[in-house]
DNA sequence: ATAATATAAGTGAGTGCTCACTCACTTGTT
DNA sequence: AACAAGTGAGTGAGCACTCACTTATATTAT
């Protein structure tokens, strides 16, 4: 049974910065409100109240409301894909290629856990990508540079070995991502229900193996 | 090559109401702006300017900005699922069950075309479901009552015949929906690129057949 | 057929409120 | 004493919405 440790993770991220205690309070309050109500429906007086600071404090470090949003999302955007790529390199592909099932299991479980760990930020990110084309471009670039490459290498390996269907990488990634997201959306939209990431991983991989394996 | 006929469809919907010309202008302008900028980032002066009416006119019929949003989304929420169910009954299941592939092809193509036809409203709906729990509940209820039943019947038929895997209906629906949505998201997020719905349908069905068929 | 009257639709200046943000000042830290 | 962090009243802008008035349309009387 996976435990929702988004608070712990965000707290860890905050601890790594040299912000004052009150500035960290501002970020925590902002994330909560942006996640619950949306960026636009959250006012800076709201943030000040929840953080227990003055309105001027809200602007001291981040200059604008938009700056607060960037401070919250930048770590997610910059870390989600590099982290995936790095973990891939060290944990999954560094030694000889594992079986396809092991590869998919590792990938899927890793991403489900990431969704569990970052669900508030992902909820904020989700609403932002609808109208923030700069952010969409940023995510797309990071994805192509840091994630597509390693997975392309892995899938090419299995394809060249005749283990999986001879489809374009983009197409296969689309199916993997959309199946993971269909479980991930439940985590993001209904945080009151804990999702068994191990059981979910098993179901996802079972379906993907059937869909992709020769 | 599918043509984006959302304007034609929305125009048809408007023609079916007894609203005045200026009121219809208000709705058209509202949909465009809500879709492009989001509900919160759209102001009622914005709507008045684009519709070419006075600010008071914006409120004449719909009373509040929120009322305009409801007027736009209600037809989508009330029609998307009933339409799916009705079309299923008359076009797909009325005669004897077709082959699994024909069934999936019909379903997938129908839903992709619906996404194409309603992409602006779906874009608005997407942002609303993030924070409007009433709307989410409404969609969920409509889905369970009008869509789940017919698809459950169909999938039970194929399962009982030993044609597909012995998985729960909810699980299989999740995979169908998420795969369709992975193509549909491209339609919604990047309307400047037309999506070949027939080719997409073929790819989707190929993957789903592999994933579900025994 | 035309004029008068009633009703509906539309108008846009104005309202009260809240917003994002500022900055002179106070408090806390080094 | 100097500097940094925090404060909160105040600012200008723009919001959603109102409403007294104007214009357009429909109905009725002549």
Describe this structure in words.
Chains A, B: InterPro entries: Homeodomain-like_sf (IPR009057), HTH-type_TetR-like_transc_reg (IPR050109), HTH_TetR (IPR001647), Tet_transcr_reg_TetR-rel_C_sf (IPR036271). Chains A, B: Residues 20-80 form the HTH tetR-type domain. 2 copies of one chain form a homodimer. Chain A is mostly helical. Chain A has a single domain (6-212), classed as Orthogonal Bundle (Tetracycline Repressor, domain 2), CATH 1.10.357. Helices cover 77% and strands 0% of the residues of chain A. Chain A has helices spanning 6-15, 21-37, 44-51, 55-62, 65-92, 100-117, 119-129, 133-160, 169-189, 197-212. In chain A, helix 2 (21-37) packs across helix 5 (65-92) and helix 5 (65-92) packs parallel to helix 8. Chain A is elongated and about 65 Å long. At the A-B interface, helix 7, helix 9 and helix 10 of A face helix 7, helix 9 and helix 10 of B. The structure holds a DNA duplex (30 and 30 nucleotides).
Structure characteristics:
homodimer; 214 residues; mainly alpha; 10 helices; 0% strand; disordered N terminus; DNA-binding; HTH-type_TetR-like_transc_reg (chains A, B)
SSE blueprint:
2 copies of one chain form a homodimer.
Chain A: H1 6-15, H2 21-37, H3 44-51, H4 55-62, H5 65-92, H6 100-117, H7 119-129, H8 133-160, H9 169-189, H10 197-212
Helix pairs in contact in A: 2-3, 2-5, 2-7, 5-6, 5-8, 6-9, 6-10, 9-10
Chain B binds a DNA duplex (30 and 30 nucleotides) through helix 3 and helix 4.
Pfam families (chains A, B): TetR_N (PF00440)
InterPro entries (chains A, B): Homeodomain-like_sf, HTH-type_TetR-like_transc_reg, HTH_TetR, Tet_transcr_reg_TetR-rel_C_sf
GO molecular function, one term (chains A, B): DNA binding
